[in-house]
Design a protein that fits this description.
Layout lengths: L1 H41 L3 E2 L3 E3 L5 E10 L8 E12 L8 E10 L2 E5 L5 H27 L4 H13 L3 E17 L12 E14 L4 H24 L4 H19 L5 H8 L1
Parallel strand pairs: 5-7, 6-7
Antiparallel strand pairs: 1-3, 2-3, 3-4, 4-5, 4-6, 7-8
């Protein structure tokens, strides 16, 4: 009996020690996860300050999250938020399905850069390419597995499943979104104001065991695009095509005039008659 009590005491001490170690290192581990997993999932640079989560309650926050623009755009970042409030189901951290009860993003900034395509569409395309690549790889792996015996196949599937972590976001609210519209110089003075405000974007039950991180990011990005596109289109209606045409024509005249000695205005008049 005494030996059993000693054994149970040792086990209890080990468990308490493990809980303390996890508690002390949880925020460091989560911060590193955002910084390392973020770029792998989103295919662009991700920066974050501290991630603070209380292990017992699961409540916490992510500070100074920045998602940078895909390559080829002038603006430095795509999305920026000073503070994101989260509530995680604590017990889910030790399972293969991490459940986030709530994510509340208030007053973030989104830079929408008009181009062909725009930066948000380019960001979404990168997510789809990565997701399609993973799906193709998964299909190939399944085909390869058929060559293995059924016993080996079951063992391999079980070992693979153990290493996977899936994500379920039960409730996401993005509110008071500040959109900064970046336009080409040719139409820059025609579109005003450059700031657009979106009240709220709300999504429920995103992700799950059958969804990849890329597919979760796609779903959120598509919801943002659907919400902001009407606002962007209303700004684009301000563009005067004739004004652009005159600007282009004047620019061409100026460039030609630098290269030849005579007045090019008469040349343009002859060709436009």
């Amino acid at each position: 009996m005494k030996k059993l009590l000693i054994f149970l005491g040792i086990i209890s001490l080990i468990l308490i020690s493990l809980v303390i170690i996890v508690y002390l290192n949880l925020n460091t581990l989560l911060t590193q996860a955002v910084k390392t997993l973020g770029p792998q999932v989103l295919h662009t640079k991700v920066s974050a300050g501290k991630v603070n989560v209380a292990l017992l309650s699961g409540t916490g926050e992510i500070k100074n999250l920045i998602i940078f623009n895909p390559k080829g755009f002038k603006s430095k970042y795509l999305f920026k938020s000073k503070k994101i409030f989260i509530k995680i189901k604590p017990t889910s951290l030790f399972t293969d399905l991490i459940t986030i009860e709530n994510i509340n993003i208030d007053n973030p900034t989104l830079v929408y850069e008009l181009n062909k395509p725009d930066n948000l569409t380019a960001f979404l395309s990168n997510l789809k390419i990565n997701s399609d690549h993973k799906s193709a790889k998964k299909t190939k792996d399944i085909g390869d597995k058929k060559k293995i015996t059924s016993t080996q196949n079951i063992a391999q599937d079980t070992s693979t499943a153990k290493g996977k972590k899936h994500l379920l976001i039960k409730h996401l609210i993005i509110q008071n979104i500040n959109i900064i519209l970046k336009t080409p110089k040719l139409v820059d003075n025609q579109i005003t104001p450059k700031n657009i405000k979106i009240d709220k974007i709300e999504l429920k039950n995103i992700g799950g065991k059958n969804k990849t991180y890329q597919e979760i990011a796609q779903q959120i990005t598509i919801a943002i695009l659907k919400k902001i596109n009407p606002k962007i289109l209303s700004r684009l209606k301000m563009i005067d095509v004739n004004q652009i045409k005159n600007k282009v024509e004047n620019k061409i005249k100026t460039e030609i005039q630098k290269q030849i000695p005579f007045d090019v205005n008469n040349l343009f008049k002859r060709h436009t008659k």
